[in-house]
Amino acid sequence: MSRQWLTVGSAALTPGLRHWLAPLVWLSLLVLFATGMAHLEGAFRWLEPDSREVIYRRAGFIALLGQHAMVVGIASLVAVVLGVGSAIAVTRPVGRDFLPLVSQLASIGQTFPPVAVLALAVPALGFGTLPIIVALLLYGLLPIVRNTLTGLDGIDPDVREAARGMGMTRGQLLRQVELPLAAPVILAGIRTSVTVNIATAALGATVGASNLGDPIIAGIINGNTAYIVQGALLIGLLALAVDSVFERLLRRG
User: Fold this and answer.
1) Would residue 169 count as lying in a domain?
2) Contact call for residues 84 and 144 (beta carbons, < 8 A)
3) Are 56 and 232 in contact (CB under 8 A)?
4) Contacts (Cβ under 8 Å, ≥6 apart) of 162
5) Which of 47, 134, 205, 216 could join 231 via S-S bond, C-beta 3.0 to 4.6 A?
6) What is the mean pLDDT of residues 18-31?
7) What CATH number does residue 134 fall under?
8) C-alpha distances out from residue 58 to 35, 91, 132, 148, 244, Å
9) CA distance 232 to 213
């Protein structure tokens, strides 16, 4: 009987909604756990039977989730603007001489540990959200720059020549031909950057930024595994939800 209901329910979904089913499932689980974590006290008590508290209560999980998403969103938006913009600039004739420099700077940002960036940023920017945004920005640039360069360089020169033969200006060529053709590769780089930074953003809790890293850091300090699992669970669900959205967008492209 239950299988029959599942079949009917699946058939009732429109094709568009069915395609977005995975992101909706992950997002629903994320909201469910963020709002109902307190109801799982029995399960977390099994992890930490000797702890006085097994549910992190210093801040609400919904508030921490919102802060986490905001930090990643701001850093990712700036990284996309800088990364895509700089890659476009160095693939134009006037900026091609700066191509090695842009690639090297993006690589340095990726290889420089975010913890080191935080240590250097805190004296200048103070404790709080801004240092982790800077760290995520630097850490997330390389995939975006690299994929944008790959996508633009991979366009068939004959396509460009055909567009010029139709009378397109350089701006029209970029907007109407190059960027649409390179979009799947660029989007794949943005996907990598954002999903990696969702996990990396937890380090912000070490410099006073309030996000889903708070229960993880508190769990490490207090030796409370339940806190660590709660923070890690929500970060993992957030990453899965965002990654499934990007996967859906790439399939549509």
Assistant:
1) yes
2) yes
3) no
4) none
5) 216
6) 89
7) 1.10.3720.10
8) 15, 49, 21, 42, 30
9) 8
User: Hey, CA dihedral for 95, 100, 101, 107, is it positive or negative?
Assistant: positive
- Residues 197, 198, 199, 200: what is their CA dihedral angle, to the nearest 10 degrees? 40
Please report, to the nearest 10 degrees, the dihedral formed by the alpha carbons of residues 56, 244, 202, 189 taken in order. 180
The structural domain count of the chain equals 1
The CA dihedral of 130, 132, 137, 138, to the nearest 10 degrees, is 120
In this predicted structure, the answer to whether residue 31 has a pLDDT above a threshold of 50 is yes
Predicted TM-score (pTM) of the model is 0.87
- Give residue 253's pLDDT: 60
Is residue 31 in a domain? no
Q: Which two tokens mark 173?
A: 């060529």
Model confidence band, residue 1 (pLDDT cutoffs 50, 70, 90): very low
Helix, strand, coil fractions of the chain, as percent rounded to 5? 85, 0, 15
Asked if 240 and 247 count as a contact pair (C-beta separation under 8 A), the reply is no
